[in-house]
Amino acid sequence: MQTLYDSDTFVVVHILAHADAVRPQVLAPADPDGQTAGAVHAPTAHQMPRHGFEIVDKRSGKEVYLDGSWAELFQQQIHTWQRDAPTQEEVEDTLEGYATLAQTPVAVH
């Protein structure tokens, strides 16, 4: 399990089924000057192992777990963010769209 993003509004966690198949990835939105705030790592394997993403909306206290084709779509979004170095606002806007799917109250694991 790897925390990819943590803000006042959202937390995104990448849950790997085969942790040795890929290196952890870190989302790093650009600061207001357009500079990337942290390192971003790409997967070492070309094939995506079965995994998922947990997106927590801190405002509502609800979460959504993306796996299967939803995880693949979100993985593509992460690759786009890695390539384009988005602002925090752009990342938050995208996560807001996924947060509309959140129905499960957050549970401490």
From TrEMBL:
Pfam families: DUF3567. It comes from the Bacteria. Residues 28-51 are annotated as: Disordered. InterPro entries: DUF3567. This is DUF3567 domain-containing protein. It comes from Serpentinimonas raichei.
